[in-house]
Amino acid sequence: MKHRLPGALMTGFVPVLLLAGAAGCGLFEPRDPEEPSQSSLNYRPPTEPTVVIANLQSAVEQRNQANYISCFSDAARGAQPFVFIPSADAAASYGGTLAFWTLDDERSYFQNLIARSGQQAYASLSLTLKTTTVTSDSVVSAYDYILVFEHNESGFPRTARGSMQFTFREDASNFWAIQRWVDFKTTNDVSWSDFKGKFSN
């Protein structure tokens, strides 16, 4: 005579076996700490330009390279290539370096900046919106900025001040990113362009 398991036991029997098997595969083991270069939960899908700005500020403050570079237009994601135009003073000082700036240069600069700072180094980005112009395919916004980044490069300032103009465009997935960045020196302090030139290698 065959014995059959009650229906309640039958419905719970396979999931229990699957869970037991999954546990053996390490599903419930503690995760390794997230690497600083990986994206974190602070990054929000950039469904509008203001979210891109929030992501940029968060990425600088957390010194998160992956989140930082995600704020910029990437041709690999069906977007127009990223363009950076440095301040005039920085262009004169770092002409060869800043003349043909690419997304890969942006990535390397920020990675180098992080590498030359301590684990608990302070970083912040303050932005003051000045103007915004909306067109059929872009949003152009101008900001005054103060960038503070504690690094270990002796003799080079830790604060950059200036103005910049961002052109935001959507990619093939309808996510916004900074496609064009024009930097301006407006004070006696170094501009953000100087940071890029200094930490480009």
Question: Could you give the count of β-strands?
Answer: 5
Q: What Rg is obtained from the alpha carbons, in whole angstroms? A: 23 Å
Please give the share of residues in helix: 25-40%
Count of alpha and pi helical runs: 7
CATH class: Alpha Beta
Looking at how many chains there are and whether they match, the oligomeric state comes to: single chain
Class inferred from helices and paired strands? alpha+beta
Write the layout of secondary structure elements.
Blueprint: H1 7-24, H2 49-62, H3 65-69, E1 83-85, H4 88-93, H5 95-98, H6 103-115, E2 123-134, E3 139-149, E4 159-170, E5 176-184, H7 192-198
Parallel strand pairs: 1-5
Antiparallel strand pairs: 2-3, 3-4, 4-5
Helix pairs in contact: 6-7
Task: Please tell me about this protein's structure.
By secondary structure, the chain is of the alpha+beta class. Helices cover 33% and strands 23% of the residues. The protein is built from 7 helices and 5 strands, in the order H-H-H-E-H-H-H-E-E-E-E-H. A 5-stranded mixed beta sheet has the order 1-5-4-3-2. The chain starts with 6 loop residues before the first helix and ends with a helix. Residues 1-39 have low confidence and may be disordered.
Q: In short, what is this structure?
A:
Helices cover 33% and strands 23% of the residues. It has 201 residues and is an alpha+beta fold. Helix 6 (103-115) crosses helix 7 (192-198).
